[in-house]
Amino acid sequence: MLCEMIKARIASDRLWSLQRQGRIGTIAPINGQEATTVGASWALDPTHDWVLPQYREPMALGRYGPEVLNRFAAWAIGHPAGGHIPEPIKVFPPQISLATQILHAVGLAWSQKLQQQPGCTLVFFGDGSTSEGDFYEAGNLAGVLQVPVIFLCQNNQWAISTPTNRQTASAGFAAKAEAFGIPGVTVDGMDPLAVLEVVAAARERALAGNGATLIEAVNYRLAAHTTADDPTRYVPAAELAAAQERDPLELFRRQLEDRGIWDRSTQADAERAGERAIDDAWNWASHLPLQQADLFDHVFAKPTTRQQAQRHGLDAFLKGAQ
Amino acid sequence: MSVDPGRDETTMTMVAAINQTLADEMQRDERVMVFGQDVALSGGVFRATDGLLDRFGADRVVDMPLAEAAIVGAAAGLAAGGMIPVPEIQFLGFSYQAMHQLAGQVARFRYRSQGRFSMGITIRAPFGGGVRTPELHSDSLEGQLCNIAGLKIVTPATAADAKGLLTEAIRDPDPVVFLEPLRGYRGIKGPVPSGDYRVPFGQARWAAPGDDLTIIAWSYQVEVATRVARRFAEQGISVGVLDLRTLVPLDVASIVQAVERTGRVVVVEESAPTSGYAAEIIATINEHAFFSLEAPPVRVSGFDTPYPVGMLEDSYVPDVRRVEAAVSALLRASA
């Protein structure tokens, strides 16, 4: 897990600098949320369990194979192939419209239940997303249908610049589970083992036919919201410094060192592997072929007559402009 | 009049045709499931899903919590998971509460995932005016829906088409919004072919042939236009009615043929005119058949107001008198 967390941090930092070089568009770093994402994914069975990310998690889903990072790099560049995570990887493309994916997860878990599949669905969303109607509709529906879904709220304390006390007056986000008639659990999101444990328990409940669980993983957004954000305008410096003291990569590394299963050389190996993973992903993504008329692909299974005419029109125009 | 010569036919209402088609498709493919508000125990507020719960059970015919976004959003997940969801939105006007799932998610999942996730979903929704409903029950939002790339918008006007187009919709791998006219559920009755009957999308139908002028319409307004055509036929004036059947995909070729044949066009819609679908039809005519026109095309629409209360709706929804007046005026202007 620590290797994967290091890999995610390196990918996040690399994508940040690629954006600063003007080589990719806006990107949302994952710094501070690696333990939650990796710990949760480690509790899942990639053959049977679905993961629905928001837009940070894909860089920490190595549990589901290196292709997820490849596709995320393509997504970051703005290549259409970035949204296509091929079969049989059970990961959805990044979601930009916050909280909508929570309802998709309920539907997907419902399909698993109806088809008696031996798996569950885990969906990531943030503290801000819990203010959306879709969060409440999804929690309510999951409670009624008793579907095998795990709601994982990444409480990183900030929805861009909005702190959690402007999102809710509840005593935490897990408390909202009570209204759905499902269990709610709060866990230290800076500790991957703690997250692994609660997600594993939720998965066991789901697979036993006992329905949904809401987990609030309390972590901290150590970087900006995105490359377009300046958190120094609103994050108190002392609060950030305190959170940096609890950097999940450092905490977990020290824990493993204390147990004598991690040292300078394993750290160096993990860092090299991380660099290689994002190198490979970037290399793959930046060499994908692309035609401008590809923008018409995959709207429908078969394009309409109108779309075909528009495609030919664009093609002809672009050729004429050359 | 026979719909499909050589087939057995039964005369039934549009709602009966819809009910029978849902049952047929559920029987054919066990992945097909129906869910929405009040669709199971009560059989739907219009009884479109009557009897399905008894026949197919509570796993496949499901009463949902009262939340439109949940209905549409869950459908997206079900489709991704291999089911064939046929959710119902109780009245189209309430789809505003699901629009972020419909426009922002369902319509673009195939595109976003570059073909990985098909959204083979048929969202059924009654719409249109004329039955004195409270606010938002009668809104015609098809113009707004047609502006969302990735959705197919289907608007049957006959009982036979309700069956043929609904069958096609459920078997289509892409999301279809299937719009059912409130007034037509029991007000429209006709022969319906038995057996496996499909009507392909994007093929308009001549509801009445004509040489002097074409009324282009969809859904319940085809019925209105046909009555208008009959009245002109009594005066020896040949008014044709082109029923578009599906708005997306649009049968541009038939529209062009209609203009070439008659030179005069009246387009009828029940929504507000500004940015409505009639505007799209007329723009299409201008692009493809401008020089076949004898006179500028005319539209008969609602007005740029919200759909009004019951005592005012007869003045808002196009009816025989307004469509007839528009046809007469256009004939006079181009005589």
Written description of the protein model:
- The complex is a heterodimer of chains A (322) and B (335).
- By secondary structure, chain A is an alpha/beta fold.
- Chain A folds into 2 domains: 2-290, 3-Layer(aba) Sandwich (Rossmann fold), CATH 3.40.50; 292-322.
- Chain A has 11 helices and 7 strands.
- In chain A, strands 1-2-3-7-6 form a 5-stranded parallel sheet, with helices on both faces. A two-stranded antiparallel sheet of chain A has the order 4-5.
- In chain A, α5 (133-145) links the parallel β2 (121-126) and β3.
- In chain A, α1 (2-20) crosses α10 (264-285) and α2 (34-42) runs parallel beside α7.
- Chain A is globular, with a radius of gyration of 20 Å.
- The mean pLDDT of chain A is 97.
- By secondary structure, chain B is an alpha/beta fold.
- Chain B folds into 2 domains: 9-193, 3-Layer(aba) Sandwich (Rossmann fold); 205-333, Rossmann fold, CATH 3.40.50.920.
- Chain B is 36% helix and 19% strand.
- Chain B contains 13 helices and 14 strands.
- In chain B, the strands form 4 sheets. A 5-stranded mixed sheet of chain B has the order 9-11-10-13-14, sandwiched between helices.
- In chain B, β10, α9 and β11 (239-243) form a beta-alpha-beta unit.
- Chain B is globular, with a radius of gyration of 19 Å.
- Chain A binds chain B through residues 80-81, 83-87, 92-93, 97, 100, 103-112, 114-115, 121, 133-134, 137-138, 140-141, 144, 297-301, 304-306, and chain B through 33, 59, 64-65, 67, 69-70, 73-83, 85, 100-101, 104-105, 110-118, 149-150, 152, 173-174, 202, 248-250, 252.
